[in-house]
Design brief:
- By secondary structure, the protein is an alpha/beta fold.
- The chain folds into four domains: about 200 residues, Beta Polymerase, domain 2, CATH 3.30.460; about 110 residues; about 190 residues, Rossmann fold, CATH 3.40.50; about 150 residues, Globin-like (Orthogonal Bundle), CATH 1.10.490.
- Helices cover about 55% and strands about 10% of the residues.
- The chain contains 36 helices and 20 strands.
- The strands form six sheets. The protein has a seven-stranded parallel β-sheet with strand order 11-10-9-8-12-13-16, sandwiched between helices. It has a five-stranded mixed β-sheet with strand order 1-2-7-4-3.
- α27 links the parallel β12 and β13.
- α30 crosses α35 and α35 packs across α36.
- The longest helix has about 35 residues.
- The termini are far apart.
- About 40% of the residues are buried.
Length: about 900
């Protein structure tokens, strides 16, 4: 046929239009089957892909017959786009799952990624194209809404027939499936079709440039959307790390209700599994497996991975691993799943096999820190590279992984795992302080002690492999392991004699971690004896910056009969403690310092290893404290400025459960720590009232506030329990009467006692509980009498109270400041919602209207006590 001959061309087109018109119903049926099948098979995928199709219009077919005449002499049988289906997804990362769905369900005759047509510096049309046909072997899996698929759709030409008719062999009825992102679809419909699919043979240069520019912008936007979605998905995966256990349990109950109302809700099942994993309760794993199992055939790779992980915990190794393998097959671009598959071998110490899967994860995403961490870990434990010569070669990888982990943390994802990764990478780079700080942050945001124990056990195994091969790494791991031993003991109530007394001298490097090795000295720590740690700058020349605090510290410790732990030298804050002359007769000063340092007179010194001050000193100190059976939340840590080691000391104290008070304006790393939201928000300990109290407090430079911190308030031993609320209510009513004189200042803390918020009610209880300390400070006490009301007017006792009124008022202000700080209040303009108060300052900085409140409280106290039958007497 001559395509240039109008008569021949017209005859061919007319003939082919008749053939095509006759086949339109067949193509229409093919379109329905493909669309219904894709909609059914992609229902479980995220993003709700938009799927639509068409059969080519007759006029469009006729036009294409003419344009493609030379190439297709029988277009009704040769054109592959007579039936077309288009799948539009929200973002590029959804395309791989769609492609697998198409390839798994249809006979693929051709496929092309059109982006391959573009040069390195070109931007333009991008789409995935498939030419498909129905596969007779998969006919049972096609969705037809109950209708029978016409046999004609499976028709195929044999080789001999194809040769005879000059047509391709194989399926007769074909369809084109295009897969695009939403932005690719927008560019194609708005620009490509209007610019390229037109009669214009020569396109204007400026339009081509504009087209390429828009394509470049949309391609960049597509990639940005993928990053955003991945970030959101990762946040959802790890958002349990941001919750307290009670919050996690509450959220699990919510998701259970959602799942009960819709048993097909896979997202709810997945959330339950991930949140339960955050809790780390082994007893919940069977229940979680029961929640996930109904979705095993859903085709959701994330759900299969979670199901596999929980089955492994339930000792179903074969089925669990099978689920994870299936997840990798369905989503081979997910490094997390490859890491989980590697973990199934890692946990059974098959490091060589685990290494293969971690290498795969690293190949999939070289910027994925967890894959790199596991890869290194397995390479060391496998022992195939006993020289560890590969470590210097991957220094840049380690630096990059740390940078990526910090960026992930900044965006709130992969917590706490990103912190653990940083801890490990910094250790390999011989930066132990950075490593310990990262491990501290990781522990702070970890609900499960199993994770921390796993990290400790892993480092122990690695330590055994490197101790004779890499001195720096050996020393770093030894330090981190010692740190973790103390944290595990203090934070999770592990038995001290198990974790702190069985040190492997070759691994831990110094027996002094074990309290039984103290040069024959008997431990001075005893249950019931108060322990205060004073930390901060101990370098020579720091005395000048401490001048403003030495008097405050000295007055706060007046008469103290307990153990004060500090640096043991005459420099800095440890020198301040060494020079105290007003301690009680039973006070003991303990100094923890490196061997070779000079011990200041007045200290009992305990030595660690030779060298500079480091984390070893606070680690040894806490080892002794915990081994003596002293509850960490009874220990007080006072911080005055300090450097990197002091900061790690504060953090260690917070992790084991002590209360840390840092003088706010003392500068250094102490002030920096007080601005760290993680440490401020996450550190809480239960109080005797049952409410949660903040551990990390920013203290004003005030003697009585510091003294109130050193001497915590406990329920009064002198006042009967049933009188406690009466006195507290009475003090509140007196305060309310005074404040009601200024109606404009009526706030929530002026409500009636029954309606009073718990935080303000506890504040009044705190006043009552502190009565013992106030009276004892001035040589007085209480006794309960029956019968007549105790006399108080004109008594010597009342005169003593009046003389000491300012001291007692200062004590009350200090107690109130500590009470408010423990409850999470901060210095600032008065705001009940933000929990800020301007009165959280030293007594001397208060204006007269504020000091008057404390004076009034002291004045009213004797009368309220007398009304309940309490008489104030001399000790």
């Amino acid at each position: 046929m001559d395509c240039n001959n109008p008569y021949d061309l017209r005859t061919m087109v007319a003939d082919q239009v008749k053939v095509f018109t006759k086949n339109i119903p067949v193509f229409a049926e093919l379109r329905k089957v493909i669309i219904a099948t894709l909609q059914d098979k992609t229902a479980g995928l995220s993003g709700s892909p938009l799927i639509h199709g068409r059969v080519k219009q007759v006029d469009s077919f006729a036009e294409k017959c003419i344009r493609k005449c030379e190439k297709y002499p029988q277009p009704a049988w040769q054109l592959t786009d007579l039936c077309g289906v288009r799948v539009v997804v929200n973002s590029l990362d959804a395309i791989p799952a769609i492609r697998r769905c198409i390839e798994d369900n249809f006979l693929i005759l051709e496929d092309e990624d059109t982006s391959g047509r573009l040069g390195d510096m070109e931007f333009g049309y991008q789409s995935i194209h498939y030419i498909v046909a129905l596969d007779p072997a998969k006919s049972s899996g096609y969705s037809t809404s109950g209708r029978r698929i016409p046999e004609k759709l499976f028709a195929a030409r044999t080789g001999s027939v194809a040769l005879k008719k000059s047509l391709p062999a194989g399926p007769v009825y074909k369809a084109e499936i295009q897969v695009r992102s939403l932005l690719q679809h927008a560019w194609s419909d708005a620009i490509h079709d209007n610019l390229y699919k037109t009669e214009m043979k020569r396109k204007p240069h400026h339009l081509l440039r504009e087209s390429a520019l828009v394509a470049a912008l949309l391609e960049d936007a597509d990639n940005s959307i993928v990053k955003l979605i991945k970030g959101a998905d990762q946040y959802r995966s790890y958002y349990g790390a941001y919750m307290e256990p009670e919050e996690i349990e509450h959220e699990i109950e919510i998701q259970k209700v959602v799942l009960d109302s819709n048993p097909d809700n896979r997202n709810a099942a997945l959330k339950i599994a991930r949140l339960s994993d955050c809790l780390g309760k082994d007893a919940d794993t069977k229940r979680v497996e029961g929640t996930l199992a109904p979705f095993e055939k859903s085709g959701d790779p994330a759900l299969l991975r979670e199901l596999g992980m929980v089955r492994l915990k339930n000792r179903k190794k074969a089925t669990g691993r099978k689920n994870i393998v299936k997840s990798t097959e369905m989503n081979p671009d997910d490094p997390d799943t490859w890491c989980e598959l590697g973990l199934t071998y890692f946990q059974h110490k098959d490091y060589g096999q685990a290494l293969k899967y971690y290498e795969k994860a690293f190949e999939v995403d070289p910027d994925y820190p967890r894959a790199l961490m596991r890869f290194i870990e397995c390479k060391i434990l496998d022992g195939s590279d006993g020289s560890l010569e590969f470590l210097p070669l991957i220094k840049q990888n380690l630096e990059r992984a740390i940078d990526i982990s910090y960026r992930r943390i900044a965006t709130g994802i992969h917590i706490p795992h990103a912190w653990y990764d940083i801890g490990f990478f910094a250790l390999l780079l011989n930066r132990p302080d950075e490593s310990i700080e990262a491990y501290g942050k990781a522990i702070l945001t970890t609900s499960s002690k199993k994770i921390i124990t796993g990290i400790y056990d892993s480092l122990t195994a690695i330590h055994g492999k490197v101790r004779h091969k890499n001195i720096a790494l050996n020393d770093g791991i030894r330090l981190v392991r010692s740190y973790l031993r103390v944290v595990l003991t203090g934070r999770f109530n592990r038995k001290p004699h198990v974790y702190l007394s069985g040190c492997d001298d070759e691994l831990d490097g110094f027996k002094t971690l074990s309290p039984c090795y103290r040069d024959g000295k008997k431990s001075v720590y005893k249950k019931g004896k108060p322990v205060v740690i004073v930390a901060g700058s101990c370098s020579q020349g720091s005395e000048v910056s401490l001048d403003g605090y030495e008097r405050i510290i000295e007055e706060a410790f007046e008469g103290f009969n307990g153990i004060i732990c500090s640096g043991g030298t005459d420099a800095g804050i440890s020198g301040v403690i060494g020079r105290l002359t007003n301690l009680g007769g039973q006070a003991v000063r303990l100094g923890y310092l490196p061997k070779g340092e000079s011990c200041m007179k007045g200290y009992e010194c305990i030595y660690t290893m030779p060298g500079d001050f480091s984390v070893y000193e606070p680690v040894m100190m806490w080892s002794d404290i915990l081994a003596a059976g002293i509850a960490p939340n009874s220990v007080r840590v006072i911080g005055v400025g300090g450097g990197a080691v002091s900061c790690l000391e504060y953090q260690l104290a917070l992790l084991v459960g002590a209360q840390v008070g840092i003088i706010s304006d003392s500068g250094g790393t102490g002030s920096t720590l007080l601005k760290d939201r993680d440490w401020l928000a996450a550190s809480t300990v239960p109080s005797h009232s049952g409410n949660s109290k903040k551990q990390l407090l920013g203290l004003p430079a005030d003697t009585e506030t510091l003294r109130a911190f050193i001497y915590p308030t406990f329920p009064s031993k002198l006042i009967r329990r049933n009188d406690r609320e009466t006195i507290a209510r009475g003090m509140h009513e007196k305060y309310t009467e005074l404040m009601q004189q200024d109606i404009a200042r009526r706030l929530q803390n002026l409500a009636d006692w029954k309606e009073l918020d718990a935080t303000f009610r506890d504040a009044n209880y705190g006043f009552v509980d502190h009565i013992d300390q106030k009276l004892q400070r001035i040589g007085l006490t209480l006794r309960k009498i029956t019968g007549a009301k105790p006399a108080r007017h004109g008594s010597k006792i009342e005169a003593r109270i009046e003389r000491k009124k300012e001291l007692l008022a200062k004590m009350e202000h200090g107690r109130w400041v500590i009470d408010r700080l423990e409850d999470g209040w901060r210095l600032g303009e008065r705001d009940e919602e933000k929990k800020t108060r301007p009165q959280l300052i030293p007594w001397g900085d208060l204006d007269s209207s504020e000091t008057e409140k404390d004076y009034n409280a002291i004045t009213e106290l004797p009368e309220i006590l007398a009304d309940l039958g309490y008489e104030i007497i001399a000790l």
